[in-house]
Amino acid sequence: MSKVTDPELLINSPDLTVDDLAGDARRIGNALINKARRIKDTNRKFLVLLPGAPGVGKSTIARALADELKADDSDVEAISGTMVDVEMVSRWMQDLRIGTFSMGWQVKLIEEIDKVNATAQTRMLDLIDRLPGKAAIIGTSNKTYEQITERFQTRFQMWEVEPPNPIEIMVFLDKRWPDIPRDQLEEIARSANGNVRVALHELQTWMDLNA
Fold first, then answer.
1. Which of 106, 95, 149, 109 is nearest to 125 (CA)?
2. Fewest Cβ atoms nearer than 10 Å: which of 18, 35, 174, 183?
3. Residue 46 has what DSSP assignment?
4. Which residues on neighbouring strands pair with residue 108, listed in sequence order?
C-alpha cells in the first residue's frame, strides 16, 4: 500500500498499485494481474476493456496491467481515445507486427476508448481481429457495460468496475489516515457517491481546514 500524507497526492499517482484501490476495483485488479502473470510467458494476446463510473480505479488497473506485461517503458503506449485516428491505428498495426519478432509484449493503453472516432474505431476492430501474440490492448471507458458498442463487447474481455460502497470507501480511508475522526471519514465516504477521487478531495479539504 502506498504511503502518503496528503490525500491529493494519492490521486492519479503513478505509484499506485491495485492494492491501493477500494472495493470492486481491488478485486478486479488483482484478478487481472494474476491473469497477466499466467499468460506473460505465452504467445497469447490480451484484450481487456474496463467500463465503469469515473473515479473508481479503472486507470490504475490499466496501468498496473501494462506494467505487469511490459519489459520496459518503450513497450507501452498510453493515449486518450479522443486522440486516436486512422493513421495512428495503422501505425499500431505495423508496430505490433514488428513486435512479434521480439520477445516482449507490445501494449496499447487507451483511456476512454469509446471516444475513438467511428472511422478509426472500424480500423481498430480490424487491428483487433488480426492482433498477433504478445500484444495487448487495454481500454477504459466511463460508460456502463450496456452502453459500450456491441462491436467492442464481442472482442474485449469486459470487466465492469462497480463503484465502492460507503463502507468500502470508509475502510480505504481509515487504513491510510487512522488519526482522522471516524465520524468525519464516515461522512466523507457517504457523500462521495462511490467516487474515490471525490472522497480524497473532500478529505484533503477537511485536513487543510483543520491543519
1. 149
2. 183
3. E
4. 77, 137
Q: What angle do CA 161, 166, 167 make, to 5 degrees?
A: 100
Grid coordinates representing 39? 499468460
Residue ranges of the chain with per-residue pLDDT less than 70:
1-4, 97-103
Q: What is the strand order of the sheet 157-158 is part of?
A: 76-80, 106-111, 135-141, 46-51, 157-158
Distances in whole angstroms, Cα of residue 49 to Cα of each of 22, 34, 58, 93? 19, 16, 9, 19
- Look-up: residue for cell 465520524? 183
pLDDT of residue 146: 93
Q: Give the tens place of pLDDT for each residue, 156-174.
A: 999 999 999 999 999 999 9
Q: Rounded to an integer, what distance in angstroms lies between the CA atom of residue 25 and that of residue 177? A: 20
Work out whether the CA dihedral 135, 125, 163, 83 comes out positive or negative: positive
